[in-house]
Specification:
- By secondary structure, this protein is mostly helical.
- The protein has 2 domains: about 1-85, Multidrug-efflux Transporter Regulator, Chain: A, Domain 2 (Orthogonal Bundle), CATH 1.10.1660.10; about 85-125.
- The protein has 6 helices and 2 strands; from the N terminus they run ααββαααα.
- The protein has helices at about 15-20, 25-35, 50-65, 70-85, 85-95, 100-120; strands at about 40, 45-50.
- A two-stranded antiparallel sheet has the order 1-2.
- It is elongated, with a radius of gyration of 20 Å.
């Protein structure tokens, strides 16, 4: 995450755009997609972002632009973090530390899911 100094209580959309390196239309779009990102508006109707909003924007940017998540995938990650299940995801990822272990775990999961699909469709009895 890019470091920025928390100097103010509220930031305008142009300031947040400059701080995060994102265009203003991207920020507005993300507001429509991520319920957690909901900056207040002043009396004139202009968005006013808090430090918490900016931190969330950096997290969304990391997920979407650096990690390659889709918007839906990023939503799931953020909701998992708020649900507390992110710790379980981290522990699972840490348990499979080598590419071979990760591949083996995925192959086992695939075999399990294939078997489940076959049972549910009535092919295997």
């Amino acid at each position: 995450m890019k470091d920025f100094e928390f100097k103010k209580l509220y930031y305008s959309i142009s300031e947040v755009s400059r701080i995060t390196g994102l265009e203003q239309h991207v920020l507005r779009y993300w507001e429509s997609q991520f319920p957690e990102l909901n900056p207040a508006k002043n009396r004139a109707g202009n968005r006013i972002y808090t430090n918490k909003d900016i931190s969330l924007i950096f997290e969304i940017k990391r997920l979407v632009r650096e990690e390659g998540f889709t918007i839906e995938g990023a939503k799931k990650v953020l909701s998992a973090k708020s649900d507390g299940s992110s710790q379980q995801l981290v522990e699972t990822a840490e348990a499979a530390s080598t590419p071979g272990e990760i591949r083996q775990t995925l192959l086992e999961a695939r075999a399990f899911l294939d078997e489940l699909v076959n049972r549910l469709s009535g092919k295997a009895r």
